[in-house]
Amino acid sequence: MDTRIFDYVIIGAGPAGLASAQYAARGGLLCVVLDASMSGGQVGQISDLENYPGLFPSQNGSDFMQKMKEQAEAFGAEIVEAFVSSIDKKDDTFIVTTRKTIYYAKALCIATGAVHTELGIPGEEKFQGRGVSYCAVCDGPFFAGKKIFVVGGGDSACSEATFLTNISDDVTIIHRRDSFRAQKAVVEKMLNAGVKPLYDTVVREVLGENKLEWLMLEDLKTGKVTEVPADALFIFTGMVPKTSLVDMLPKDDAGYIITDENMMTAMPGLFVAGDVRSKPFRQIVTAVNDGAIAAHAAQKFLEK
Ligand SMILES: Cc1cc2nc3c(=O)[nH]c(=O)nc-3n(C[C@H](O)[C@H](O)[C@H](O)COP(=O)(O)OP(=O)(O)OC[C@H]3O[C@@H](n4cnc5c(N)ncnc54)[C@H](O)[C@@H]3O)c2cc1C
């Protein structure tokens, strides 16, 4: 097993991790970012990123993350594709284990983000990759001109439903309440794009032979159950934080890791940034904010 020593190790190359790397490297820290997939984190799923300040006109999420990566590397950060299986601390040194290499550092940043939740209904797992998807950018093009359904009521669901109207003119969004919780402008754009809303409705089951063919829907107001023909179901109903590497840290009721305003956790030298952290608003701009603050605080911590 190789061993390598850095000042600052960051786990996760989403916007929080890459912003932290850029600030740390530019500030003179020897810094590495480890990421299991290198696909840009959740931003890799965004078809049209239109709310990042200064990024105008809008851009594809993957292209934006490629630029962030290049910028961090230009300042001297190293970015390595590697899944981190565990972290440990001995005296004042963190030990970060990947399949090929063990990394040592005095400061560590967890920027592991969040992953989508599943509906947990019959047929959902069976038809994943055969009609059921959690990523419109990745799988939308397979359903050109087809009957597409989206589930959810937040920003992600409404934005991705809008994106899917570029692929099919038959897009319906199913929401269990009578109004969307997404930002007003996002909802208006979706409705103007021709997405059909189905309020007060839930998906009870995904049905088909070898691929998704019907959805069983329940009208929550009347209790009426119907089966509707469908080719695709895109699910955007929420996220869960990826905290398994640091299960020992204090978390809020929803499972997000608690930090102070410097992104420092209860363990000295251990910082947390981005969607995995307890905070009121999870966006790219807030992830980037966390990453920059964590790098700055890590630098101060190491100077001590
Ligand atoms: C469909 C969708 C649309 C969205 N649209 C917008 C939008 O329009 N505007 C906006 O501002 N925000 C949007 N968001 C939210 C935004 O993408 C997130 O707030 C942001 O990506 C959070 O960044 P992050 O760096 O904290 O985490 P993530 O982007 O989740 O990145 C975390 C990274 O950590 C890596 N990782 C996790 N565990 C390990 C491990 N053990 N070892 C190695 N690597 C690991 C993952 O591979 C991943 O690359 C959207 C999200 C989704 C899902």
Description:
- The protein has 304 residues and is α/β, with parallel strands linked by helices.
- The chain is 23% helix and 28% strand.
- It contains six helices and 17 strands.
- The strands form four sheets. Strands 1, 2, 3, 4, 5, 6 and 17 form a seven-stranded mixed β-sheet that branches. A five-stranded parallel β-sheet has the order 8-15-9-10-11, covered by helices on one side.
- Strand 9, helix 4 (155-164) and strand 10 form a beta-alpha-beta unit.
- The radius of gyration is 21 Å and the shape is elongated.
- It binds flavin-adenine dinucleotide (FAD).
- Flavin-adenine dinucleotide binds next to helix 1, strand 2, helix 4 and helix 6.
What's the short version?
Helix content is 23%, strand content 28%. The protein is built from 6 helices and 17 strands. α4 runs parallel beside α5 (184-192).
Count every helix, treating DSSP H or I runs of 4 or more residues as helices.
6
Helix-residue proportion: 10-25%
SSE run: EHEHEEEEEEHEHEHEEEEEEEH
Distinct compounds present: flavin-adenine dinucleotide
Biggest sheet architecture: 7 strands, mixed
Radius of gyration: 21 Å
List low-confidence stretches. Answer: none
- The general outline is elongated
**What's the pLDDT, averaged over the residues?**
96
The class by helix and strand makeup works out as: alpha/beta
| Intertermini distance | 31 Å
